[in-house]
Amino acid sequence: MLKFEYSSLINAPVDIVWNFHERKDILKLLTPPWQPVQIVRREGGLKVGAITEFRIFLGLIPVTWIARHIACEPYQLFTDQQIQGPMESWIHRHQFSSQNGQTRLTDYITYELPGGLLAELLLGWWVNSRLQDMFHYRHLVTKQECEKLANYQYN
After folding, report:
1. CATH number of the 2-34+70-154 domain
2. How far apart are CA 88 and CA 14, in angstroms?
3. What pLDDT is recorded for position 154?
4. pTM of the prediction?
């Protein structure tokens, strides 16, 4: 099993960062423009049972990726799990914690690649580098949008 973690500090309170993630257009905002991904649907917000469906392109081959939210503690965390997709398994926890009026946003992912240990040894570094790029983008957008909103609300 492979692991990935990305964390950043956002100069906005947790409620602003959490509410940002509840936006209906959040997936469009947080999907890097260079990624070959189509957002098919998002139902249920952040609650347990919520569904997100993507179509990702592996070269010219479209692959459906469906994730279901399996945990949600408002203003603390939500977790999604792949129920259909390219990975053997995938669990992604989004955690929000307050630090002196700011928010520590941390994404934790555990996943398994199809093909077992050999695939993980050969491709794990590449998948983690793609995740690094994606979450750098996501956290940058989140930071910019939430700090702008916090400045507007509190100034």
Report:
1. 3.30.530.20
2. 33
3. 63
4. 0.91
